[in-house]
Amino acid sequence: MALFQIFFFVVFSFIFPSVQSSTSTEICPVFCGDKLIRLPFRLSNQPDRCGYPRFNLTCKNQTKTILTLPFFGELIVENIDYLYQSIWINDPDYCIPRRFFKGLNLSGTPFEAQDLESYVFLNWSNGAIPKQLPQVRYISCLSGETFSVIAIPANRPDEYRSLSWTCMNIGIPRSAIFGISFGVGIFLICFLRLICHLQRKANNIYNDYQHHILEISGPAVVRPRSATDDAKGLDGPSIEAYPITLLGESRRLLRPSDNTCSICLCEYQANEKLRTIPDCKHYFHAICIDEWLKLIAACPICRNTPQTYTPAA
């Protein structure tokens, strides 16, 4: 009976010494079979600048990727996860427990073992393995014709597991990816608000060029309109005689519920000019009602024909 520490999926953490600023590295991706080999690893036939020291791999027959550890020998690389910095390894004879009988010595390597577990290995020579022990696992690669090797507890240690490494200067950390995503989201929101603000400012500048604010003082003189005037709409001086209002930041209106222009169906905003038809007290965007009255001499809401107003002398 043997009691020792072993791990099924070998997990190594990379511990890097400080890299001097003069060290020049490059990402030189290459494939060994279907496995991508890139920084921090490099194949033995690649230049030193393609990887970090002690991260050498060997490609056998262009199909098998081999990791050689000083006190552990050759191991087959089953998979490399560059995001989580893990490498899955297996025994060339697919019997990983045998490799640990002499102990695990990672001295002189950039790897650190994780997830170590303890197992009791038994040489079972008394017939069939008891079924009442569900945690017992048969280790086929260590068993013979007249005996069986079993391990307690749980999973089969003759399956390969993973190694991992810790390399702060490889790729982008997951926390940095989250921070970048959050920053990009904030930037997009601010950018959209800036676009809306600039569009509104452009509309205000356009309105300032097209219309002048008229301050109406004193009583207005009303003259009757003829049927001919109704047919052709109002002229410019008659339209400009109607009162105009510049909305402030509070956007206080005569009728708070009437906060949408009935012509363009847009909500009234601060710094916009509204023109009021005195007869019915209906108001609209100045630029909207001006164009309307040039064509139709009637209120868009009540359809009443307004009188012509001219400033008193």
TrEMBL record:
It comes from Gossypium australe. Belongs to the RING-type zinc finger family. ATL subfamily. This is RING-type E3 ubiquitin transferase. Residues 1-21 form the signal peptide. Pathway: Protein modification; protein ubiquitination. It catalyses: S-ubiquitinyl-[E2 ubiquitin-conjugating enzyme]-L-cysteine + [acceptor protein]-L-lysine = [E2 ubiquitin-conjugating enzyme]-L-cysteine + N(6)-ubiquitinyl-[acceptor protein]-L-lysine. Its main location: membrane. SUPFAM superfamilies: RING/U-box. The chain crosses the membrane at residues 176-196. The keyword Metal-binding applies. Residues 261-303 form the RING-type domain. Its EC number is 2.3.2.27.
